[in-house]
Design a protein that fits this description.
By secondary structure, this protein is α+β, with helices and mostly antiparallel strands. It folds into two domains: 91 residues, Chorismate Mutase Domain, subunit A (Up-down Bundle); 190 residues, Alpha-Beta Plaits, CATH 3.30.70.260. 42% of the residues lie in helices and 22% in strands. The protein is built from eight helices and eleven strands. A five-stranded mixed sheet has the order 2-1-3-5-4, sandwiched between helices. The chain has a four-stranded antiparallel sheet with strand order 7-8-6-9. A two-stranded antiparallel ribbon has the order 10-11.
């Protein structure tokens, strides 16, 4: 094969790439046109002022395309492309701002926010975690990306989830993870919208001990005996009482009998459903 024929072959392959790119661009235009139709439907229904964020639906879409594309592209790259598409569509329906706090690692939270919501998502930096949470509560379409161990302006350095108390599960919820591509410290997305199931989820509980439970192990044992196979995430001690953040496989609703059994255990003074999130879509380049 001569050099000229090799060049001709390369030119032909590049023309094929150009044609494929054109078809992909046309499909993106078509996808965004459907998003416009969805926005119009919501306006006619009178719910256009609500958040367009659908974390469970997003996870379902990304899992499906990761599986469909398979080994042709690394799963993290596939997920990143579709997160950009989904975030652009979400912003077109209801513009949102992502709030982050720099009390532990502001840069890591900013990277996680961009990875989760796209490079064009507006990000507002707050000096405190409580400031980021207050901004989310004030605007129902906004979100916050927080590290689990970030404190909430408490002199003892207690994490925000431990001090939020009854506000977790009422004023705001954990609706997604945001740490797949950032680092190994768990970061979550907090919003006022309800989490929704994706088919492969983790439910987050905050369990507070009582006088009968002075150690985190006692709290975890009470949860497990109630049928909640609780995986330890983080813990703190306030006024001598342990508070534990746990993760349970599956999407648990507030009506789950296991929550009621746990709430009746004398070792626990409160069990709060902090939210739920889709399990990570990929891990080290492999789809889950």
């Amino acid at each position: 094969m001569t050099e000229n024929s090799d060049n001709d072959d390369l030119a032909g392959l590049r023309r094929r790439i150009d044609a494929i790119d054109d078809r992909m661009a046309d499909l993106i235009v078509e996808r965004m046109a459907v998003v416009d139709e969805i926005r119009a439907c919501k306006q006619r229904a009178g719910n256009h002022s609500r958040s367009a964020m659908r974390p469970g639906r997003e996870a379902e879409v990304i899992r499906r395309v990761v599986e469909r594309i398979g080994a042709a592209m690394p799963a993290p790259a596939t997920a990143r492309i579709w997160r950009e598409l989904i975030s652009a569509a979400t912003r077109a329906q209801s513009p949102f701002t992502v709030h982050i706090s720099g009390q532990i690692d502001q840069q890591a939270c900013a990277i996680a926010a961009r990875d989760q919501f796209g490079v064009l998502a507006p990000v507002v930096w707050h000096n405190t975690t409580s400031g980021a949470l207050a901004a989310v509560i004030d605007d129902p379409v906004d979100l916050a990306v927080l590290e689990i161990m970030a404190d909430c302006d408490d002199p003892n350095g207690a994490p925000w989830w431990a001090l939020a108390g009854a506000r977790l599960g009422s004023a705001f919820h954990i609706i997604a993870r945001a740490d797949e591509a950032a680092d190994d410290r768990l970061k979550v997305v907090v919003a006022t919208i309800e989490p929704e199931p994706s088919g492969c989820d983790v439910t987050y509980l905050v369990a507070t001990g009582s006088g009968a439970a002075r150690r985190s192990d006692d709290v975890l044992a009470a949860l497990c005996e109630a049928g909640l196979d609780a995986g330890f995430i983080a813990s703190t001690v306030l006024d001598g009482i342990p508070r534990v953040m746990t993760g349970i496989d599956g999407f648990i609703t507030p009506q789950d009998d296991r929550l009621h059994r746990a709430a009746g255990d004398p070792r626990l003074s409160r069990v709060t459903r902090a939210g739920a999130a889709a399990a990570p879509t990929h891990n080290n380049g492999q789809s889950s």
